[in-house]
Amino acid sequence: MNGIEIIGTGSYVPEFVADNDKFSEFLETSDEWIFPRTGIKERRIMTDKPNYYMGIEAAKKALEDANVQACDIDLIIVSTCSPDFFYPSMSCLVQREIGADNAACIDVNSACTGFITATDVAQKYLASGEYKNVLVVATEKLSAQLDYTDRSMCILFGDAAGAAVMRRSDKLYKSMLGAAGDDFKALYCKANYQSNCPWHESLDEFYGNRFDTFGKQNFLQSDGHAVYKFAVNAMNNAVRKVVGDVGYSIEDIDLVVPHQANLRIIKKATEMLGVDPAKVYTNIERFGNVSSACIPVALDELKKEGKLKSGMKVCFVGFGAGLTYGAIIMDI
Fold this sequence. Notes:
Layout: E1 3-12, E2 17-19, H1 20-23, H2 31-38, E3 42-44, H3 51-66, E4 75-79, H4 90-98, E5 104-108, H5 114-127, E6 134-141, E7 159-169, E8 173-179, E9 187-188, H6 204-207, H7 214-218, E10 221-222, H8 224-245, E11 255-258, H9 263-273, H10 284-287, H11 294-304, E12 313-320, E13 324-331
Parallel strand pairs: 4-5, 4-6, 11-12
Antiparallel strand pairs: 1-7, 2-3, 6-7, 8-13, 9-10, 12-13
């Protein structure tokens, strides 16, 4: 009995809507330029609260949906690549605010693959039999990492959080995780320490000229062509791997929930896989790329819209900075 069951979901998106026209107020861009290249019409921006606030709100909704008390959560796993603190962990902040006093706390960071990673960690703990209820939260405030003078980057990302309460079950579950660390320069955001240690010397020897400009020192950076090539291949290979490992074919999948990075990436990868477009869920038009929160926000939408039926075979697939990638196939 090594599967999992998602017994409750929740999500939170900020109220402030930044549609494509808002970017044309301070950048040389337009909806006609942005939408065909990305599939994005608007995204939500958290203007007045920290990242952990979104995670807390999503967690509360997931607990309510699962009809589980916070005191009955044994483990909280938070995925984020945009934490408010280096420490305490975001999971400890969530624990404090929801009153999950009995829960252990872990943070994971595999960027946009984070919900896949966190879910797989949850499955391993649940399979041990030592934990009954695990709360997985993915919360991201990418707006704080963006250079709003760079029209190629700032239009892509938004802020959001998603959460799920998980239990052990005998349902189908198979996962795979991978990484290509040699390609980290394709997508990164450097931690910008401001040290006044009198013994620190220049780190140029290690960083070379990778971070030689203000933008590279302070904001999210991406090589769009490299990410596109990696993402399409990673999604294709990851889905084929988990589906093949359980003896299924692509046609047996009822629903694919991909990371919402770019609509062109999603369409190309699922076309290579031979997946019926009607089986692929996207919400990138309304939220943009919210990193590891993409999949759980989509999952919560699907559940609330009644699109998740018992017995469905669902595949989650993601990719992100690191570079990382992964997929899960499971029965709902």
